[in-house]
Fold these 4 entries.
Entry 1:
Amino acid sequence: MWGTEWPRFEVIKQDTKHGPPQMVGSVHAADPEHALLVARHVFVRRPAAYALFVAPAEAFFHVSQEGLKDLKPTSREGGSEEPYWVFAKRSHRRSMVYGDLVGRFLAQGPEDAIVQALLQAQGVAFWAVPERLVVGTEPTEEVVESWFAPAKEKTYRLQSYYGLITAKGVENA
């Protein structure tokens, strides 16, 4: 049935207090608060996390390496600026699309924010999102403990730990 799917939110995860936030994937949810809860269950089941953020997927402006040459800086005279978060994918090597936060830029639009980011970082793809649309957990000690600490005690095992199921039983790898 068409039109019954919840909106998609991009998930941004910060693993440690001093680590860079990274785009790690997306979830479908009814609203930003729901998206944070779903993201917690999907992306923080076992790995460490310090903070989570979400923003509506349609709010992200994306440009690939091929499109970078066509970006033009916006004239700053008389235009209103707002803060944008800009992420960059550094190479094509990773199988998943991870974007590292390059920085926060005051800009007249997403293209302008990416042009500013290009002065500080290189990448094969860039994303920009208005900061006003980013919703996240507060990185206080209480939030970190209640949201992310339970995952620290879970044992993580690679798939190969469980062996292969064969016609005669389970074969340990």
Entry 2:
Amino acid sequence: MHKWETLKIVLIAIGVLVIVVFNAWLFTDKEPDLLDVPETEQAEKPVPDFSSFENVNKRKAAFYQYLKPEIEKQNEYLLTLRHYVQTLKRQVSSGHEVAAKDSERLSWLAKEYRITKDLSLPQQLDALLLKIDILPVDLVMAQAANESAWGTSRFAQQGYNFFGLWCFKRGCGFVPSERNDGAAHEVAKFPNLSRATYTYMRNLNRHYAYKELRQIRATLRNNQMPITGYALAEGLLNYSERGAAYVEELQSMINFNQEYMTE
């Protein structure tokens, strides 16, 4: 092979690697600053060995039974925060000043959900309400099943990472066995299920890559329509390099596994 052709192939490979790593950096929060994470009683329990279930239906049932309480707990927390912001909004609209303790907490929320300081107080509250909201259990379940092979991946088994979240600080997680040479990312490792689920939900709720998901959710809420996983999946084109194919697969999983949601 001519040396220039060889060089061309190498440059193309490097270009592809740069794009993959850049996309992962772009669409995943790098270093979560978890300050106020609600934790369930089962949060630190070992992840069940889902691969031990030979029957697929039993494996799925066990998977849903393990994750569903945690997802519901995190959604309850989000609704509590949302109600708090709504209360502040009513106070401000009525001309009342925000108390010092509320101002401090509001500053924390603005930082946690990446609200720009250039906005006025009413605008900050509106921006927070757009970001602080629930994520349907069926959507979270579908992503967790898809990203962790129904909880059997080593990242889920050893680090509670059911959502394919990356980190970029050396030693922050697992080094992927198929990571390309020169790549610096790791698959994030969490101390418990609550931290992992909180980080995943916060990522969807605050990262600009998932702005469309939040807009779909706000439209549904404003029109008093159910906030469904099937609808919000349309806003996850950037979660995977597969784009539309990934969204379609999630929607198919949501439809196909509805029976487990009621168990």
Entry 3:
Amino acid sequence: MIYSMTAFSRYEIIKNNCNIIWQLRSVNHKYLEISINLPDQIKHLEQVISKKIKKNIFRGKLDCNLYIYCIEKNQDHILINKILINQLVKLILKIKNKIDFGIINFIDLLKWPGVVIKQNVNNINEALILKHFECTLDKLLEFRLFEGEELRKIVEKKLFSINLELNKLSANLITYLKEYRKKLNNKIREINVKYDTNRLEQEIAIIISKTDINEEIDRISIHIKRFFDILNSERLVGMKLNFILQEMIRESNTIASKAININIIKSAIEIKILTEQIREQIQNIE
């Protein structure tokens, strides 16, 4: 199965006057990088959550956020530490007597650690929180799998297009060599000179060897077959496919450098374009 590294999932539930929201977002990354943001009261769950993620996801940058909004009866939704506010204001006024730095910004005061008191989430069952996390993770994996299968279709379509260009290359190469041999023989007849038939064949063979691209065509065909095998049999394929694409680009460059026929050059360029397009797609494959 092919998994994309780009996905998003959200799970929300209301329980015991609390709104619990899990959000998971993943993007492409060379390795696995996990960022977990939990309320202070349940920070100890980070390790458990990290292990669950690592069992299911192996590459990508993943942001995991839990939001809990609790509203208790006869209590404000947001609590302010008035004692700390008073202490901060007194300290600011004391400094202000020595250095005039303008008007006090109370919004900045609210950002001070401990001023805004987070609601107590001890009444939330941790097992319930973990259960809903697993539901969110399952949704993320489903999304990654769906996107991965869509990427597979795009990549396979472009691989088939490359195969068509390889067939064109083989046909054009045979036609070109026949035309070249015929053209060379006609040229010799026009100038009406004696020539050594064996020497002529040797010269033709040398030219053919310099312009022969059969080896490159065969190697690209082998790479494509390996590409299909990996797509259909493995999970972690992104890095392997990227390596194969580098080899395919190298072979297409060699074909373009050897070719002296416009049709062969066109096919070589088309193969390189298709390969680059595939490489863009697999940047998101796990």
Entry 4:
Amino acid sequence: MTRWFTNLLARHTPSCKEIIQLISNSMERPPSLRQRLSIRLHFLICKWCFRYQKQIRFIHNILGGNPEKVGETAPGALSPEAQERIKQALRPKSK
């Protein structure tokens, strides 16, 4: 992408902070057409915001939109007995 085009997009798209807010809000309600266009244009000049969106979508998909399920959805979660053994092993031993 040419430098003048990148500069043009940088001047006419929202800042990273604003894009992050739009991405976060889009997890709760769909963004408007204008917001989607702003986000897409910003992605042309900012790989970091694009990565953020990929990560936040991944987390949202894993949780299924239900943050209360964090411990339940982990594949291969430890049994309560295993968790207790680890806690015992990590406790400081008295001398």
